[in-house]
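Researcher: I'm comparing several assemblies side by side, and this is the next one on my list. It has 1330 residues spread over two chains. Same procedure as the others: predict the full complex and return the structure.
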Amino acid sequence: MAGFDDLPTWGGNFADDDGDEDEGEYQTQTRWGSKDGLIFLIDCTESMFEKSEEQSNFELAIKCAKNVIQNKIISSDKDLMGIVFYGTEKESNSSDFKHIYVNFDLELPGAPRVLELEAFLEEPENNDFSSNYGHNDNYSLSEAMWTCQNMFSNCSQKIGYKRVLLFTNNDIPHSHNAALQRQAIKKAKDLAETGVELELMHMQNPGQTFDVTLFYRDLLIELDSEDTTVLPDPSQKFEELLTRVRSKDHKKRATGRIPLTLGEGMQLSVGVYNLVRTCTKPAAVKLYKKTNEEVKTVSKTVLTETAEVLMPQDLKVSQEYSGRKICFENEEVREMKNFGATGLHLMGFKPTSSLKRYLHTKPAQFIYPDESIIEGSITAFCALLKKCIEKDVIGLCKYIRSKSSTPVFVALLPQEEEFDENNVQVTPPGFHVIFLPFADDMRKVTHENTPRAKTDQVDKAKDLIKKLTRPFRSEDIENPALQTHYANLEALALDRDAPDSVQDLTLPDERGITKRAGKIIEEFKELVFPEGYTPGAKRKATPAGGAAKKAKAESQDIDIRKEAEDGKLGKLTVPVLKEAVKNLKIKTTGTKKADLIDAITDHFDL
Amino acid sequence: MAEKEAIAIVLDIGPSMNQAPPGEITSLQSSLNAITMILQRKIFAEAKDEVALVLCGTADTQNDLADGDSYENITVKRTLCLPDWPLLEMVQKDIQPSSVSGDFIDATVVAMDHLVKGIQGKKGFTGKRIILFSDLGGEFGEDGLEDIVASMKHENVDFNIIGPDFDEESGDGDAKGGANGHKKEKTAQQQAGEVVVRSIIEAVDGAHYAFSEALPALSFFQARQKRSMAWKVPLELGPGLEIPVQGLIKVQAATAKSFKKVYAKDPDEQITTVRTYHLNDDDETEIEKEDTVQGHRYGNTLVPFSQDDLENMKFKATKCLKLLCFSKSDDIKRHHYMGNSVMAFSAQKGDEAAALALSAIIKALYETNSVAIVRRCYSAAASPKIGFLSPHIKANYECLFYTELPFMEDLRQFTFGSLPIKEDNSDLPNKKQQPSSDQLKVMDDLIENMDLSKAIVDEDGDTEEAFKPKLTFNPYFQRLYQCIQQRGMSPDAPLPELSSIVEKSMIPPENIVNNAKPVVVKMKTLFKLEMVKKDKEEKTGQNVFKDGESSDGPPAKKVKVDDDLKGGMEDITKSKVTEVGTVDPVYDFKTIISQKDEDRFEEACKMMQKKLIEIVMDSFGTQAYSKAMDCLTVLRQESIKNSEPKMFNTYLRELKETIVGKGKKDFWDRIVYDKVTVIDKSECPESDVTKEEADRLLEGDVVKTEDTAPTQEEEADDLLAEMD
């Protein structure tokens, strides 16, 4: 490890990254300064309001904004959002630019904003847009961008990441005014220099084209963003546009910037990202019943007997083993977990086929080269990536995520860049970091010797598979429990009578399955099941209330000690076991069945 | 049921075990180290396995089989029971090499006899094992060897030996060293012993490990204490087609036992965590828990949820495992695997029809390279998940592996720039960073030279994959056990060094390191990798303080606000700041006092002082302390600049009282550590405090000079541990 011990600057640089080092929930943005600011800059000239298939481009843009705001409210509730119209007759902005209307200033979105946006989608004619705002083509795109810039700098809150999404269907604004065009390009550059990113969300009406070479390519080229990739095709459909907006609406925030060591003294640096992470319901907050204001929770550790408040320095931590309490200082626990420098350390390479399906302990991470700490990282990373793809190998690394993480082994799985049919990047180029289990994590599963299927049975199963095979994309399936929570929350927040009903996309389409494969299912059953076979003891879920009551009655009839001695505890139900534990007045480490059984066996000293 | 094993450890303490070339450890010591590790695992993973210890080569004799003539010099040192501290202590301290040689075959017989007798009347043992530690240097008798093997088989005893490296049968004798890795000629006695042990191993399908392989060998002594409960459910493949299956966890990250907080002065004293609820007003009015209600944020709107709301809105589901569709394996991306475990599904016990049906599905999936996408709901109380079942076929069993997949909400669409790894990169802005053919060539060499798939060469010349997960142990667990053991035996000793065996398990095999060395040297010349020099942006109070101290030095450039104030746009459009807020108090404070039109210094200081206390009190652990320190140092600096020391000095003294009284002594420690004290005469003539007096304020509060501020995540860890 001598290789990086002589580089004392690592620690400082790596420790100071902007990402959160926890398991990476969407909503954790607790760290100071990590707020994002997002402005929707929407073209409101008349052509944006032309209807095609029920919907104008303006409505598309508003729907997108609404969707993103609703999403933001849920996923990252500290982010600021604003909406600016340009090409309006009326004006409203701090610099009194003509034809620019700041509809929402940059602020935390909430329920009222969502309702206001909904109004734009209503008849008559988008909340009477033409009389309330009007249309006018004599705007200056430069001034529109300037307005956005002002909004960011006037904002009293510190914004980490600033982004403007420009919605337009006009591929050549200011077509007769080269000066205005030049100004716009210059302003775009200005934005980039002050750390504001501009993204073009170009749209087109049917029969229309959007030629980026006419004007926007020149404008975007000035931005020279590190995310440069192929420009997507213009969108006509809401879903396409939304996909593009979604891919831009989060700051891609590295959870860490760490060294990747290929050998002694051969180090490059990479950013670590979470491309997938379980999204859970946001934590509840405590409110004061009378005023609905937020309540602060303070927890203190006290001596039970004297109620004396204990400070961290009064505490140690301990574990108990066969009667001995073993105590450590907190610092010692930290030291025990210290296994050297943070980062990925290459151990060697293995064929990709060695990465078996069952080698999985937690969701993967992703690494991408980072030039900000070690220059030349991109080149070295590319060479590694290209060769790993070519030779179909994975890199095996020891991975220490942060100062307080213990080492794990990971596979670096090479990933080529992938695009969808509209040229939107779906998978970025880099390495996936696949976490491998240790021997400690792998359990022995014993299998019985069971009969194997014969060819005709397998063939029938193949028919079944063939009938019911369809492409699968995780993007298509929403989490029904989470969506129900949000729908309920939204209904309460927006004071709606009933929440929008949530479609549970995890439920199978039983009618469709019967229609397509009903006959094969019957044939398959005939081939594999003996006559009169009814699948095992089907268990109907007992209603929660009844189980405990039943358990009480049952457990009285059962001699727990005898069951335990005969090793039959596993046959009892959890409520019965719980009741037994209660009756025996023994402590358990958990409420899982295994814990309960352990506790009972321990109790009888078996 | 938990699998529990009866294990007899047979340790040879005869004279040859105590020999080693200078500077190397003896076979006896290697054995004791390995036995210690086995016992640590058993005790600290709280396994139910029982262990006996049989010594071979003791001066006296103490075993059931001895009759004054045979089975001499063998002692059952410890009868079969749960391993505990005294056993560990005995292994660590009491076992001495002997000058008598014992018969290790006899000792094995004694151990077997003891095991068989030892488990009589005890319930639940599922296995018996003998682990022999010997260099096979002692004399032994071969009489009755066949009987011994036969009864081992009959009693179903697993037999392992940890001893010297066995010679390669090919006769390529110089490939590997002897015991402990050092080259040592084997004695004729050892060679004879090896032949016998080999025959036993072959006959009973036992295993042999060299002393140097002790850690991977642990996999065989691994406690199977994790009991997997079968999750039983009908697999619904469509209306009317149900196959009763059961799932068992195959892979899931094991966690160490969690630490509990105890009172340092008396660990046996009871402690409790008390939670109180406060309003966010000036007095932090405490309120009853009953007066609170659960709420959720909807943007900036706070939405209360009543108990009824919660009840009505609960997502309802029923336990199930249902097919949605089949899909091609290629549709399932490796990096989309979610959840923290993999389950193995097979037909429910005893249901042959189900087994047959499942077998047909497994084979068909395998042959069509497909997977089944399923909805899985663990119980009525759990929310449904999406996952996939993939076929796994082995010679002696078939099953389906279940792994969770992400929902739309779990995916984050980040766009990253294209990388110059294509054939033609001319349209990319980073095309200059495209690797050259030389660079690609050397990377190719690296991959070739660091091939782990054949990295381990065994005594038969067979190669094996290195870092097989099945044989790679979590180094933290071993380290934790090592520390607990040492602390348990000598409570006052500092933590031990990381054991070399564990350290070795985290580096590539030696041959790989050697192969790669020249390639890495070449790489370093071909790739230009340079550390970007950056101004260290350390914002500790001390730094800022020091900057302020040297009156003619640059102004506190470390405080970010100064940078922000430069630059045209921001200046012009800077909105008027009237209050010191929590978001960026330093900026607000500086802005207010820099307003030329009116003197608001005193007012700004007051606001800053109040804000600082708020930040400290609201801080989650030490999380906001750096920010508070920034406030304090800026406040101090500006007080000096404005020749207004008194207000600051009074404040600092009060601050100590306030925060220490409110349970935030650790912030005061931080102040002491950063040496931020009152302003003295030498810094500001208006002050009436001498340097000595100033220093004294911090005295008596001397804290350790090392970094006392734990990082945020560790604090969070502690908090989580507390919640358990």
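Model: For your comparison table: The two ends of chain A are 48 Å apart (CA to CA).
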